Structures are given as structure tokens and as C-alpha cells.
Amino acid sequence: MKPLFYCDHYAIPLPDGHKFPMRKYAMVRDLLSLDGTFQFIEAPLAEPRVIELAHDAGYVRRFLDGTLDRAAIRRIGFPWSEGLVRRTLASVGGSLAAAEEATRAGWGGNLAGGTHHAFRAEGSGFCVFNDIAVVIEYLRAQGRIRRAAVIDLDVHQGDGTAQIFENDPGVLTLSIHGRNNFPFRKRSSTIDIDLPDRTGDAEYLATLHATLPRVFDFAPDFLIYQSGVDALSTDALGRLSLSLDGLAARDALVIESCFDYGRPFLITLGGGYSNPLENTAQAHANTFRTAWRLTAGAANTPPWR
Predict the structure, then answer these.
(1) How far from each other are the two terminal CA atoms of the chain, in whole angstroms?
(2) pTM summary value
(3) Per-residue pLDDT at 115
């Protein structure tokens, strides 16, 4: 059975009417539990010293002890609570644990994470710490990789990841996102592709197919796939028009390309705000089902090098 890491058991108290769909995480795990192919492991809490590899130590401390100012909390979008602290540490810890799984078995999955709007010294857009950046800096600090690539397909640009690595020649950041969507002040990724409203399956997949070779030409030692599903046509915040089948084809293209490239890769979640929310949960679950289908048995016959 394939291990996946989860943290949906940590509750975040949110006010009535809050737009973040926290219950989607448990929905995804419930869907995947029906398959009988995954083992669900409680994500460990990331240690602050590891998070500080990618984030300003003062910012980390202020978040953990609840002394961020109101403006900083407002940018994050969640009210501060001890529950938020535990959930945030577990979300990062899940990505770190899944990265370890990837180095052992070719790929690893976190049923959370993908918090790509978090900058080095502040949070934003429902993201406190940038687990993508933490994983990369952790693996580099361990001397296990030199170069990494991020394939960010959330409909919202990965501005925090772009800012953290903007002057780092050892990290390639790709963001394919909606042109007219949050964040309205875009940062400079290594490769930015902004798509117009109502972009559908065919145009999206053609763009992705043409772009992915540039990622592998960079020769990364490790890849991270931020698999946001807010490009769905039913997404309340997305503005693009992909179908569930289109998203599944997107996942297959990325995952098969990473598998064929032969280096370990991590899959995190990302945004998803569909109405109905079941579409978001189904799309997220499909990502991991696709990864399992395309790589089953890879631990025994590894192409990883």
C-alpha cells in the first residue's frame, strides 16, 4: 500500500461563512480510503528550526507564539489559534515526510500542503509557511539534492515560492495560472504562463505539454508538483474552465513525465473551491489515484537514479 500523509484531524476554528473549504481534506481521505491501495499516516509536526531554513526566524516565532500583528493575520486569512499552529506544522511536516517517502520509493504524497502564497517573512492567501520551499531547503541542507523544480498548476500564481527562490539558480519555478486572478501583484517565477479566463481542456493541456520539457531541461534532482484543482469550471474562485477529465489528463501528463524523467517527486494539494465541494474532493483524489495507476510497482523496478 502506498503511504499518504494527512493532517485533517487538526481542527481550525473558523467563523461562520468563511470561504476556505476546510472539510475538503477529510473528504479526500475518505474517498481514497475506498480504494484499498493507500495507507494513511498522520503527518508529523515540522520542527521550527527546519521551517526557518526557508522562512525568517522572527516571523516563524511570532506566528508560533501568537504575536503577529492584525495586518499580518489579515493577510494570512485565518484567525490565529493554537489549532491553526498545529495544523500548519502538520501540513509542513506532511510534505517533509512525503519527500522522504519520495526519495525512498520514487514519489510521495501529502494530502495537504502546497501553500505557495507564503513568502519568506509573511503569510498570505490562506498560507502561513511555504512547505514547498521548506522541503527544498531541507533536502539541500542535508546535501541530498542540488537542484529542484516546482511544477505549480494551481489557478493562482505561486507568488510566495517565486519570491523565495527569485535569485536562486538552483531552483526552477513554473507557474501556470489564471491571468486575472489572485494574486493581483504577480511575482516572477522562472517560467510564468498566465491563461485567459475560460481557458478549457484542450488549450490548457497543449500549453502544459509544450512547457514541461523546459522543466526537465533544467535537470532537477527533485521535483514538487503543486496539484491545485481550482482550474475546474465549477470552482468559485478559479475563472478557468477545465473539466474533471481535463484535470485528470493534466495530472497524468505531469506524473508520467516525472516518472519517465526518473527522479523523485512530491505531490502536494493546492487550492480548490468548487461548488459543489464534492468536485474539488474528487479532483484531488483523482490526482493520487493517477499517481498510483502510473507508478504502481515502481519501488520494485525503480527508474529512480
Answers:
(1) 22
(2) 0.96
(3) 98
